Structures are given as structure tokens and as C-alpha cells.
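Troubleshooting entry. The earlier prediction with zinc ion gave an output that would not parse, so I re-checked the input for stray whitespace and re-submitted. Clean input:
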Amino acid sequence: MARLEQSEIELMADTIPILHATLDNGRSDRWKVWCKHCEVFHFHGAGDGHRAAHCSSHSSPYKDTGYDIVGPFLEVKNHDD
Ligand SMILES: [Zn+2]
């Protein structure tokens, strides 16, 4: 079961574009990504992971796949101890 989930994640990583987010005006709860297809910023709640595209451009490939966003900093959850 875990193996199947892992392969699904790897498959998605191959096809889902990854966009790098920056903070929206210093707010830590909102991230923005530059969309080269719409030529505007799209805004999302903070957090790494997959997002549905907010694209207004009908030619944007993101509309089909969405994209993964990666934030300007990572909150590393350390459960080692
Ligand atoms: Zn867009």
C-alpha cells in the first residue's frame, strides 16, 4: 500500500509543475506565485503542496494539472526526539 502511494507521488512529481512562492507583502499566511502564462501573481494559502490553478489564461497548462507550490521557507517538522 505504501509502495503504491509512493509511486503515485513520483508520477505526479514528473508531470506537475513546481512554482516557487514568495510571501504576499510579508504576510506569512498567504503566498503568491508568478504565473508566466497569465503574467500575474496567483495567491494561495501558505503551505507547500499541490494547488488548483487560478489561471485566467485559457492557454495555461496549469489549468489541467494545477501545480505544486514551494514556499520561501520550510517549516521542518522534526519528530525524531
Ligand atoms: Zn495562471
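This one parsed fine. Strands lie at 18-20, 22-24, 27-35, 40-45, 49-51, 67-70.
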